[in-house]
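Q: What changes when protoporphyrin IX containing FE is included in the input?
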Amino acid sequence: MSKLAALRDTVERSEPRRRERREKSAGAETQEPGNTRDTEDRGKHKMDYIQQQQQQQRQQHQQLLRLTRNLFKCSLHTPLAFAFDLWTMLVSVFNSSITPTFTLAGFRALLPDLPLIIVATTVASTLFFTAFFFIVAALKSRSDHSRIPKELPFVGKNDKEWFSALRANWRGWFQSISLYVQGYQKYSKNGKIFVVPTWTRAPQILLPPSMATWLSMQPEHLLSFPVQFKYTVGHPHILNNDMVELLIKRELTKTVGTLNEEIIEEIIKSTDDLYGGSETAGEWRERYVFDSLARAVGRVVSRVFVGAELCSNMEYVNAGTNFSKMVSISSYILHLFPEFLKPAVSILVTLPSKYYARICMKHLEPLVAQRIKDMRAKAADPTYAWEEPNDYVSWMVRESFKRTSETDTSVYNLAYRIVMLNFAAIVTTTIACANTVLDVWSAPDAEEIVEELRGEIMSVLSETNGVWTKAAVNKMHRLDSTIRESSRVSGIGGTSLARQVRATDGVTLPNGFVVPHNATIGVSMDGIHFDPENYPDPKKFDAFRFYRERMEGGKRNVDLGTTSSKYLLFSHGIHSCPGRFFAINDIKLMMGHLLLNYEIAPRPRREPNISLGDIAIVPETATMQIRRRVKV
Ligand code: HEM
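A: The predicted holo structure follows.
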């Protein structure tokens, strides 16, 4: 019997039973309590009725399962059948009802078996695309590997294997951390250079830590960050422009601490919405760690970027987060293709990020246009009844008044800068918050850590009447140490200071070795962060490690914002993250508020971050049990 015939059979066989059940249940409904004479009969009848209902529900579930199994088997049959199956499944899930399933399945069952030609075309095209993808990946990896100087040791590649370059890249995709740490121990510790494969990019040449400071000081025209914004984001005139970074350094960093009242207000609103306000005290809720924090962080960061009104529009906030995710995903996909195919492939793979950028722009363009109008009106007439908000949009518009080019003045270009600012700020800050929550509340001594942190925060805030002043936040050294330590052990990826050689003649390293044009270089961040010479017992999450170094070791440069060749979360040198002081302030405020106002249940284990190539992804399925604390 063909699969489709099997489905038709299931549907037909189930129909009389369904009719019978419907009749029974209709009868039961009319006979229910009102039709019985005495109380005993009524009670018995009610019990029967409930049991009947339960049994009916059980049968419906079983049928749904059986039907779904059959539908999936049939999915293999034809693409058209697959589309129907998917639709049927979705309807069933959303309606939690079996009726539409039967209707659609019945309709599906009426379809004739589609001709063999369609089945053959589907199979042939799948095989063709798989073979095409395999050949493209094999050729690209071979060409990428051939550009690496032969004399450098390669970790994770065996030249004697068939398709050695492709297989090495595969290892670079799934075993990256062990390769980075292995190569670091064997070569970097001895001052030598080595190479690691990456599935997506060309193999990366990793330099010993002794060259990290040199690497961090190289100018952009020699070595630059290996991004593909050309394809993933476009708008080169906006990206290759100084305005975003200038305003972060000149305005945003200067205001860190001064906008804490607004930031705390937004933190309170967003955490009340997500985790419950004081009226819910004591009630446990289960929340996804990453997703819920992304919503809160997106809102908080946006308060300073775009002001009080737009920051609470969750369509805008979520679109900003999704834009960042989709740009990263499309970049990873594009890295799989050779340069000449990227323009064509990018049209398809950037559709999701373009969609989210459009949602952001729908809100940003009118905001920027209105701000320009208001600021001009106020400049022309100081009595104009309008107060300029102290946010990134105002700083940007004021800066644009000093400039003349279309890139720096058009509403579209100014609004798109905010989209890119979100890209740099939201996901990175969320990762740091999510890692901290997971590391603290999964630690064996979670309760003691939380008690000490609460004690510190309360003691500092008692000196400022509960106000989160800049000085107060700076005094929270235990909190700072906890976030820094979490980012050391959990981090954002396996390598740091990744740079592509732009100089056509290559670049000469401090030891005289010449790295060729277009090669990618960097340092093994995992190796450095897990080196026992840098951090005793390096794999342990030791929340107060840096606090002790500060208090007992007399070290002053161990706060979260200090970068060094041994601590690379924010990179190091001339390209170290300019937004880190703003990010750190936000993370401390967010964690401080959670610690003081919420209780998070200790977690049985810390789900490991997922290492994909050179990035570390916080497991999005990790959840936390959280409740509002009862204040005494
Ligand atoms: C915990 C949060 C954050 C982390 C871990 C982080 C990390 C980084 C890293 C590793 C880089 C690359 C530096 C390099 O080229 O080697 C970077 C660059 C950058 N970050 Fe951040 N960042 C964070 C938050 C932010 C925020 C909140 C903003 C904006 C307000 C921001 C704006 C930027 C910009 C504009 C660059 C590019 C700098 C350049 O090209 O020279 N970042 N960040």
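Observations recorded in class: The CA atoms of residues 197 and 203 lie 4 Å apart.
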